[in-house]
Amino acid sequence: MPRTRSTTALALLVAGVAALSGCSSTVAVKAAPNADDPRCAQVMVLLPDVLGDQSRRWTDAQSTAAWGDPTTVQFTCGTQPTGPTTLPCFTVDGVDWVVDDSRAPLYRIATYGRTPAAELIVDYDAVSSSGPVSALSRLITKRFEVTGKCVAPTEGQP
Question: Dihedrals φ, ψ of 11, to 5°?
Fold first, then answer.
């Protein structure tokens, strides 16, 4: 009889988890080339459950995260480092970020001069980038190696 109760309890638990996770689907994301860098793992475990009013969602690739339903912020660690560029560069909490708004309202905001490199994709129609950039800068600043700096950082926040 105890085995039947255990089986029933397990079935109810699985059904409950399935019901709760059914509210939000998994976000399909491509893993970056260096997603297996141990420093990415150090940051991933510290990512917030909420950015602004956007809740974190499951993703299907290593060293990635997403917030919002539909997705408004996406984070990928282990990306290819950004080389010299004429795009605007901002320094936030000691981390340099390059902003590419060529696909506006989706902005690609990538670390500059950090190993491993990381990037955010932010839907500017739904959320300001200052919150996500600041939250991630605090996690990256002491964990990712500095390999370069913006020559002339742009004033303000991305």
Answer: -65, -40
Q: Which residue in 83, 76, 88, 79 sits closest to 136, CA to CA?
A: 76
Per-residue tokens: 21: 């996770």
- Positions of the chain with pLDDT under 70: 1-24, 155-157
Position 156 scores a pLDDT of: 66
Q: Is 13 helix (H, G, I), strand (E, B) or coil?
A: helix
Q: Where are the domains of the chain?
A: 25-146
Residue 135 corresponds to which amino acid? A
Q: Is the Cβ–Cβ distance between 134 and 93 less than 8 Å? A: yes
User: Are 137 and 94 a contacting pair, CB within 8 Å?
Assistant: yes
145-146/73-79 β-pairing? unpaired
